[in-house]
Amino acid sequence: MTHQELRTQLAESIEQSQALPRDAVLADTPFFELGCDSLDVLEIGFLLEREFGVDLEGKVNARNLPRHLSDVMKVLLANLPPQALDAMPPRQAPRVTP
Description:
Number of helices: 5
Distance between the termini: 25 Å
Number of domains: 1
Shape: globular
Largest sheet: none
Radius of gyration: 12 Å
Order of helices and strands: HHHHH
Mean pLDDT: 83
Helix content: 40-55%
């Protein structure tokens, strides 16, 4: 999976879980400008844990919230094992659970 494919997959997942416009998420519009509150942004951290199996305890919290998609990418890439991205096949549709 390329970084661009991962970015698109994340945007789709965030779009579905938070009902945000994908184009705005991809454009790095800050989540707060899109109407998210801090709990919504924390949920995005939980989404990463569920979808990618990363442990973000203590890394995404009220003092350290990702502001936009680029921040989410940084958090995810910093917490994935080195070869995980290469081994990840692109998905056809995101698996988001409410």
